[in-house]
Every structure is written in C-alpha cells, then in structure tokens.
Amino acid sequence: MKATVAALLTHGKGILAADESFGTIEKRLKKAGIPATDENRRAYRELLVTTPGLKDFVSGVILFDETIREWTMLGKTIPELLQDQGIIPGIKVDKGTVPMANFPGEKLTQGLDDLRGRLAEYHALGARFTKWRAVFTVGEGTPTTPCIEANARMLAIFASLSQEAGLVPIVEPEVLMDGNHTIERCEQIIYVTLRTVFDALFQHRVVLENMLLKTGMVLAGAECPEQADPDLIADLTLRCLARAVPVAVPGIVFLSGGQEAGVATQRLNAICRASNGPWTLTYSFGRALQAPALNLWKGDRANITAAQDALHEQARENSLAVQGTYSSPEKQETFRTNNPQTTQIV
Which DSSP symbol is given to 279? Predict the structure, then answer.
C-alpha cells in the first residue's frame, strides 16, 4: 500500500475519475448527443485510457464496476491497458446514495453489506486503490450532526476494509456546491466534516499513512452572488485543511465538484502554489478533466484523436497547476480556439 500511495502521488501527476455510475454516464453521453449504449460506454472509456502520453500526467484512474470487467477492442481489459502504461487502476466501491430516514434532503451512502467480498474480487481484477464518496448538502440547518457522523462511520469502515484487502482507500467526504451559502459557511462545514471523519478513521484503526483524502475546495455555493477569487479560495482551503487534516495523511486530492474545467485548473493552481503544508496536493477530476474530450468525440471514431488530444491537454494543464506553475490563459485560449467544440461543458 505504501508503494501504491507513493505512485499515486508522483510529482506532477493526478488521478482521472472515470467512475461514473450508469445513470451519470448515460446523462453525460446523452447531453453530448451520444446514444448511451453498452458499446458507446465501452468505446468512450477505452478512448480515455488509451490516450497517448496520458501516463505523463495521470498516475491512477478510478473505474466503475462495469469498466473494471470490460474487455477492449485491443484484446485486453481496461485495468491491463492501464497497467501496461504504468497507470494504477482503482475502483469506486460505494453503491450510491439513498435518502436518510427522518432527515429531509440529507443522504447516506450505501454499499457496506457485501464490501469485503467485492474488495477481494476487485483486487484480483487488478485494482490497487478504492474510493468511497459521501455527500453533504449545505442548507438551512444542514448538514446535521447525525448525517455527518453516520457518513463518517461508513467512510471509516470502508477504509478499514480496504486496507484489510491490501487496497489504498481514497476517503471522499464531499460538501456539495449546490446552494447560495457563503464561502465562510463552506469552510465551516468542510472543517466540521473532516474533523468528524478523521475521528471515525482513528476509532476504526485506519492507518492514515496508507490512505488519501479526496475533498472539495472551499467555495461559495454555486448560487451565491459573491464568488471569491482563486487566491482567497486557496487561503481558506489551506487554512481549513491545516486545522482539520492530520499530518500523517500523505496526500490530498481535490475533486472538481462540477466546476468548469478551466476554472477548476486555475483554482487548483492557486492552492498548490500557496501551499507549504505537510501533504502532497494533487487532483482527482472527473468531468473537469473529461468534458473537452467527450464534447469532441461525439461517439464518432473519426474524432478519437482530437478527443484524446483534448484530454491530454487538459491533463497537462492540471499537471502544471499541481506544480503551481499554471499561468497560461493564453495557451488555454489558443487550444480552445483551435478546438471550439470544447467550450461547452457537459
């Protein structure tokens, strides 16, 4: 597990989150005008993992249950294709969210019942790390303490079972961007959530050195009229992490959480540039990394090269951001101008 953690945190590299559930991938394909067939799902994910040069900027890819089992047109499974490139396969192991009884608007993540057996199977299929996501909605009186504590307990059980199976857990408590809350309110909720999660991890004897934290940036709600600039986002994010995350945690990977690709990259750059904390900081982006490629592909084999070029460029920009050296709105605009289809985010 230590070797896996070190490889995932390779300098200048991040993690591609390609773990969309059936419902999510269907919605994104349809919005891009692509029929959400079994074949199109397989072809799209094969496009992602066979992108030339992806290994230069991506250390790991989080897969979905369907994807980790798929055989590609190249006669290999997707985990095998990743391993051939030196990219580590991972797997989303939660089974999505359900409403929390007696707590309107709040959710619990399910999937613990058969997790031990599934983890052994995923390890045999090539996975070397796992991910479990819990979600928290900021609203009037939410998230509540029972919701935070219940999800923290599940995250801790997931992490302990993953380590038992020899898999590195990525623990993801996500405070959603939905709503009109201020950036200060977001910082408060992320702080309380992280403190509660790490208390639960400690109680369940999770080895912090053999895990990663996936969290969101400290941001105002998407509907808040006052949006902070990247430098303030960086300051509040780093302050929150310094107060809540133990130094034993080797790395923190930021989720994009629905941010537009370029915006997420600029904010990531500001955070990494300002950081002097004890953790390695990087990214684990899904939509913000994939969207330009998906919009170019359109389900047409003739567009594969252009789509892969877009993914490679987005990953390169995120690599620069991780190093705090992304200062290229002009270069980004040049690429967008040459590939105008990428401006629409799915």
Answer: S
What's the pLDDT at 340? 47
User: Which candidate in 107, 214, 313, 317 is catalytic?
Assistant: 214
Question: Which domain does 257 fall in, by range?
Answer: 2-343
Residues 141 and 148: their CA atoms lie apart, in Å, by 12
Quote the DSSP letter at residue 179.
S
* pLDDT more than 70, % of the chain: 95
Please tell me the number of Cα atoms within 13 Å of 125 on its side-chain side.
24
Q: Is position 174 annotated as part of the catalytic site?
A: no
Give me the DSSP letters along 198-258: HHHHHHTT--GGG-EEEE------TT-S----HHHHHHHHHHHHHHHS-TT--EEEE--TT
What DSSP state is assigned to residue 105?
T
Give pLDDT tens digits for 210-249: 999 999 999 999 999 999 999 999 999 999 999 999 999 9
Q: Return the amino acid letter for 64.
A: F
Cα of 17 vs its chain's centroid, Å: 5
**Which CATH number goes with the domain that contains 93?**
3.20.20.70
Of the residues 20, 172, 187, 317, which is catalytic? 172
Pairing of strands 129-136, 88-92: parallel
User: How many whole angstroms separate alpha carbon 290 and alpha carbon 296?
Assistant: 10
Q: Looking at the 3D structure of the chain, how many domains does it have? A: 1
Tokens in use for 266?
A: 């600029």
Q: Six-digit token pair at 24?
A: 């999510």
pTM: 0.92
Tell me how far the alpha carbon of residue 291 is from its chain's centroid.
14
The four Cα atoms 122, 125, 131, 135 give a dihedral, to 10 degrees, of: -70
* Residue 87 and residue 56 in contact, taking contact as beta carbons nearer than 8 Å: no
For the stretch 30-46, pLDDT in tens is: 888 898 899 999 999 99
Q: What separation in angstroms does the CA of 215 have from each of 170, 189, 334?
A: 10, 12, 31
pLDDT digits over 155-190, tens only?
999 999 999 999 999 999 999 999 999 999 999 999
Residue 214 known to be catalytic:
yes
